[in-house]
Write a structure and sequence with these properties.
Radius of gyration: 35 Å
Shape: rod-shaped
Number of strands: 0
Strand content: under 5%
Oligomer: single chain
Order of helices and strands: HHH
Length: 177
């Protein structure tokens, strides 16, 4: 009888140790889950900040490109005028910019040089915009992947927590054999 009692006590101690180990694992998993959640929140914030910066930079480049296009249109209009061909300018802003820039030019050579400068600057801005768009796409991809990994970790932690709740229910006697 004592042998049976010792065996029962030993099994009870073993189960209590196992339950304690599972509680510890559950606490660690909950901590990892919380850390994963915080990490995903930080990544989400970084992604939002980065995307806002990229949108602002893209808008700035588009505005610069629009100004360059206006400059090119004005130079083309003046070139056509010098050649004796009437070329209508569509906006007053473009006309004003053209008149102000042209009043500073004194020869066809200066006009040609200005056209070359404007074209090069436009090409540079187009390339910068393309590079910025590629960088944005890469950043979005990286941050999306990191966010997905964080969400997967959170799902695993929740699943582990669900298993931990079942052990706790057995421990508190809510589930009987």
């Amino acid at each position: 009888m004592t042998d049976n009692f010792d065996q029962t006590a030993h099994l009870t101690q073993k189960w209590l140790a196992e339950i304690q180990a599972l509680k510890q694992q559950m606490a660690e998993l909950q901590q990892k889950r919380d850390e994963a959640w915080e990490s995903s929140q930080k990544w989400r914030q970084l992604y939002n900040t980065e995307s806002e910066q990229r949108r602002a930079e893209a808008k700035m480049h588009q505005q610069a490109l629009a100004k360059q296009s206006e400059g090119i249109a004005s130079v083309k209009a003046e070139l056509q005028r010098f050649r004796g061909i009437n070329f209508e300018v569509t906006t007053e802003t473009t006309t004003t910019v053209v008149q102000s820039e042209l009043s500073q030019l004194t020869s066809v050579e200066e006009l040609k040089a200005k056209l070359v400068v404007v074209t090069k600057e436009r090409d540079h801005l187009i390339q910068a915009l393309k590079t910025e768009q590629e960088n944005h796409a890469q950043t979005r991809n990286n941050l999306t992947t990191a966010l997905g990994d964080a969400i997967d970790s959170l799902a695993k932690a929740r699943a582990a927590r669900g298993a931990g709740e079942a052990v706790e229910a057995v421990e508190t006697g809510e589930i009987s054999h």
